[in-house]
Design brief:
This protein is α+β, with helices and mostly antiparallel strands. Helices cover 37% and strands 32% of the residues.
Length: 193
Amino acid sequence: MKNGLVPIQVHTVLPTPRGCAVFLGNDEKTFVIFVDSAVGQAILMHLKGAKAERPMTHELIDHIFTGFGVTTERVVINDLKKDTYFARLLLRQQNELGAKIVELDARPSDCLALALSAKAPIFVAKHVFDAVQDRSDELKEISETLAKGATALSEDEDDSEEEGEPPEPDDDGPAKNPDVDEPPPDEPSSSKA
């Protein structure tokens, strides 16, 4: 623990009826922050190392930071008031004149997305960590349920193949009909030399 800060990591993101639940913590304790769906998806993409076709908002911010020589130094979830978390985003700007640290107030959800994108450390203030309810058992139960569901789904797929159902077609594009897509074998191709 450094200066009353506890290092944590994002464990997973799960959908909820009103957004997403972000499970984060360490070996000692796991807690949950509820975020909107868009930021939850951004956090999940960063966790999985997936890239969007076009830059998402947090990726755009990272690109802007890079352009100005700014890096995400760390994120600190620093307070909890009436079920609302607060966070600080610490940035470092390095240029020919030296280094400058800037600390900004930000939503924890945005901070988490930026920290994961930049592979920056995430911390929680000790007083917040001590105050939050431990959700480690819930995360374990959800993970086991999801694993059982995935195993059951896999077994169902295996059973369907054993029952003689045709396998799913490969996704190599549309099937070719030799009568339509290719010239008959005894006619020369109509390409010119």
